[in-house]
Amino acid sequence: MDSTHETTAELFTSRPAPEERLEKELLCYDLLEKYKIPYTGLDHPAAMSVEDCHNADVLLGIHICKNLFLCNRQKTDFYLLLMPGDKVFKTKQLSAQIHTARLSFASPDYMQDLLNLTPGSVTIMGLMFDPEKKVKLLIDRDVLREEFFGFHPCINTSSLKISTKDLTEKLIPALGHEPVYVDLTED
């Protein structure tokens, strides 16, 4: 985003008009409204990485959160990891905490099949497309120390902000995936 776009970007607090929105994105807004979860949103250029989200995060007043889609070596267990964007991901450390074989990034095919997501748009909201709970939700406890939580609404051209309290008390229960909390360290 250039500096001109930063100063003219418009935040929104209600469901955007459905024109030019994907159905899966609209379903995110439906879920937030159904569970009375207030949000602030922002449309922006496609963000394929944590670094690409920086300007949106500044405008929304949140810290960057990584959303990683992982699997075990055998590709039989799948995980969605939420962790602070400034932390380095260490597979060995996480593998030891969740007692699983070596972890790696799951393929885009699994991401599409299990979460209805594409690379760059990984988000907790993808769990609404996993009613069989094939994907386990992992959350680094440091994510919960922030007042707000930011995420994509299943598309990487928008970002949303909700309170972390609403994340834990409303959104996660609505998604039906019991989280496993982990402690990822910088060491």
UniProtKB/TrEMBL annotation:
Superkingdom: Bacteria
GO molecular-function terms, A-Z: aminoacyl-tRNA deacylase activity
Domain YbaK/aminoacyl-tRNA synthetase-associated: 44-168
InterPro entries: ProX/PRXD1 (IPR040285), YbaK/aa-tRNA-synt-asso_dom_sf (IPR036754), YbaK/aa-tRNA-synth-assoc-dom (IPR007214)
A Pfam family the protein falls into: tRNA_edit
Gene3D superfamilies membership: YbaK/aminoacyl-tRNA synthetase-associated domain
Family: Belongs to the PRORSD1 family.
Name listed for the protein in its UniProt record: YbaK/aminoacyl-tRNA synthetase-associated domain-containing protein
Organism: Blautia hydrogenotrophica (strain DSM 10507 / JCM 14656 / S5a33) (Ruminococcus hydrogenotrophicus)
